[in-house]
């Protein structure tokens, strides 16, 4: 298997190095051969090549079986014009690879739940998956422009019906592998696109009679994620609602630094990345938490390669490290021993081999 | 002053009756003369007049100095085609009256904070105001339509630059009357409309040098509202982001049943309504909590009529009722005495006169 590594900016370099070591160890243990190629994206690509997404990076990703990304962005590029912003690299590679399904599993770790802003009773036991449509909607629709000498501005939320169908199918399939409950989030009382979304969900549910379906308006969903996160199993929604709700959900369990994500193409090819950002303030200090990136490699093994056992080995190792009382500076394991990136990586490696 | 009452659906009737009694008592005490006219909106208007927003209602509101609304909606009309949905009445009256600024103050009551899903340390002391643009953006933009035989669907997010300017001015002025901190929320790393939004905020801040300004992306705002609500004073944002964030914020303090809102026109005319919905399940039973509607009349006195002292009398009376240990069924005052709508109204009346 060909894996492209895109470390990107800030702590990206450090966490990708860690995750690669863990992935290598596990694949060797199970006798798989993975080959790694490193390429530039984001701010570092702007500095070296004058663009956040070099042709060479696109080509390498297109020829690969999976991509592992660190993070993009930082204050250095914040004032750049919009085509020279690190995020454009991320948006661009999603579009180029046709990564339409963003999967964000959110599950608390017992050792970290006390760091949640929510009361223990409210959050304990929550285990949800947000499936966000990633290539359509308001972030990509045209026209997106100023008009009338700048007196007016327009963005466009646009969806092809088949784009909605494929993400809804993906979510139903995900729900099948879990607790068989799907919440579809839209704003069908106002938006035409949401009405089509709701129709598609209603049509598709006939094909998945074993999955229970519920519709929720996005404003109500934003409330219920906080008041009762346990009521959710799989949530499916369009690009922008998914952006907002998945970030909202990411802070519920008190372990943002532990959350992985997957962005998938129809054939299973995917890009995997931690949910946290590039954390420029601690970059290069050897203190970054590599666990979300390590957990992202588990998602890669599961979703792109169907290697469930290998994925579970990584997830259990991470769980074990926390149970053994280790943490990085961003985490707050009660009575835990704080370690740096390298030592944390070694502790995980010890437990996967 | 001419006040239009729009009870609407569900518990609307009951809470409007309560709020009217309180408003009458306070205005009499201070020797103001208010005249009341009741009209139909929402589901009840669909049933009686075949439209959620009768001409007659629009005309009465246009001739009034302020409008007090109960709630619209209910399962009875959920399957209606979209032009015959109760919400259309609400969207329509906002548009007809030019109510561009939706103000949602969110402040916890000590007696109710224990019902918050958030830990006490996280939520105690939070006191924020969300200023949502209400007449532009994705909910009103055209085209909003299916295309290509239903294979494609489009909604349009559109803003006039001066629509952004007036809401940003409104928010700066609100911040001035509070702790002088303004958080502007957008998605300027992706949307053209958000770039214009950010430019306008940057331009306007020169006129308000005493107000500290911060920009936040909507996904980050959705996180920070939960992890640290205390960091916010005034939040200003466009229509849809405001819809989502204000509902998210409304559950933080554990007292959704206590939250008022104001929707204002440039000349100060406004529509006032509780944040909670029509609660069809408990309608007509005499148990609805009238306090959010009563508090909405305080906002009316303050924002439409500049009657700050009168507004404060109502707010203090509500505060006092809670301190004295009374609550309605939806609230959970520890060791509190549960009362119905009429008795709660009497308790407030006792304290305003
Ligand atoms: C960087 C940005 C464009 C991106 C998005 O909103 O898609 C990010 O917020 C995310 O959620 O991955
Ligand atoms: C009923 C609906 C159209 C409305 C809105 O989103 O504007 C409601 O959610 C609100 O927030 O007042």
Structure description:
Two copies of one chain form a homodimer. Chain A is α/β, with parallel strands linked by helices and 353 residues long. Chain A has two domains: 1-102 and 257-353, 3-Layer(aba) Sandwich (Isopropylmalate Dehydrogenase); 117-252, Isopropylmalate Dehydrogenase, CATH 3.40.718.10. Helices cover 40% and strands 23% of the residues of chain A. Chain A is built from twelve helices and 14 strands. Chain A has helices at residues 12-29, 43-49, 55-62, 86-97, 120-123, 161-176, 192-204, 218-227, 239-250, 291-303, 308-323, 341-352; strands at 2-8, 35-38, 66-71, 101-107, 127-133, 137-147, 152-160, 181-186, 212-217, 234-237, 260-264, 270-274, 326-327, 337-338. In chain A, the strands form three sheets. Chain A has a ten-stranded mixed beta sheet, sandwiched between helices. In chain A, strands 6-7 form a two-stranded antiparallel sheet. A two-stranded parallel sheet of chain A has the order 13-14. In chain A, a hairpin with a 4-residue loop joins β6 (137-147) and β7 (152-160). In chain A, α8 runs parallel beside α9 (239-250), α10 packs antiparallel against α11 and α11 (308-323) packs across α12. Chain A is globular and about 55 Å long. The model of chain A has no long low-confidence stretch (mean pLDDT 96). β7 of chain A pairs antiparallel with β7 (152-160) of chain B, so a sheet runs across the interface. The structure holds 3-isopropylmalic acid (2 copies). One 3-isopropylmalic acid sits between chains B (87, 90-91, 243) and A (189-190, 219).
